[in-house]
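Protein modeling request. Please complete all fields; requests missing the sequence field cannot be processed.
Requester role: graduate student
Desired output: 3D structure, token encoding
Chains: 1
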Amino acid sequence: MKARRGLPRNRLIPEKRIYFRPELTHCPDCGTKLKRHHTASHKIVATLKGILDVWNMAYHCPNEACGKLERYFRSAQADALCLKHTSYAYDVLVLVGEMRFKQHMTVTEISEALTQRAIPTSERHAMRLYEWYLTLLRASLTDDVKEDLKKIVKEHGGLLLSMDGVQPEKGNETLYVVREGFSGRILAAKNLKSGSCSELKALLKPVKDLDYPVVGLVSDGQRSIRMAMEETWGDTPYQYCQYHYLKDIAKPVVDFGTVN
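Delivered output (260 residues):
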């Protein structure tokens, strides 16, 4: 990526446009094929593998008899790219955390390192990335979060849960993030060295202990994640991400002009 002359230093210029659709293709209640309804979100996202123009398309069940016309499903994979109100991917945040905690780099050095990776940022913004990383690690099931989850269960009939592992560079720890799909709420996040099934089940346990119904599970193809989620929630419908971002960023989930 080359910086364009005359543009602000932090201006993100996308190299690729990607449309995402929900990993669930059919209504978990009645089995009707989901239909595209509207754009759930659109943002420019800076990742370690390029700057992307990301569109997350919302689908719903068109079956009036189902009674869930206003329950919208969005892509867990798209939501797993970055925090809700930022334009920097999780892999960037994790890298910033590693540079700060493990390499003891200064904010100036972090900013320079990101610039060398063609991720436009200033010292001030590098500090914000570090603060977002700390916020991510503090994610937990507070009373406010529990109340929000109760409302989601009442409105949608249950939670839609996803788990994703982010490892910016091989050999480093992987940050595992547990997310609720209808709301985009992060329920838990933790750095793990091995990411074994037992470790991931322990990360999921506080969510399981809430004893809320779960309508669907979504993750990438990592075996330990699937085992942990399936052993925790039994026969709940499970769906892989079609193309996992960290493993296959070059392949769009839906090519431009073919969203249906």
